[in-house]
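G., the chain you wanted modeled:
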Amino acid sequence: MTRICLIRVIKRKGAASKRHLRGAKLFFYDPPTYYVLNGNPANVREAFAVCSFEEAGRKVFAADDERICDFAADDATLEVGGKSKSGKAADFVVRDGLDVPLPAVIPMWLLGMMY
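Predicted structure as C-alpha cells:
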C-alpha cells in the first residue's frame, strides 16, 4: 500500500530498517482523505505535518516516547496539535489555527510553503 501511495508509514528511528511496524504511525498518504472519510482532526494535522516534511525531503520518524514529542524530523523534535497545544519537551510545536509564528511555534499553514 505504500508503493501505490495509499498509506504513509512513519517508523521509529531505531526501527527504520526493520520490517515490523511496532511503534510506527500509519497515515493516509494524502491528508485530504481524512476529510472525505470524516476523520479525526488530530489525525489530519499529523498527516499533513508528516506529508509536508517528507515532500520537502526531510526524514521523519515517530517519537520513541510520545510524552516528549510526536515526531523527529532530521535533528528537530516536533509536537503537532491545535491552537492551544503545549510543546511538552519538543523543539518546535506545529499549531493549527495560529496566524503568526511565535518563538518555537510554527503555524500549520506555514508547512504548506515547504513544497
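The chain is about 20% helix and 25% strand.

Shout if anything looks off.
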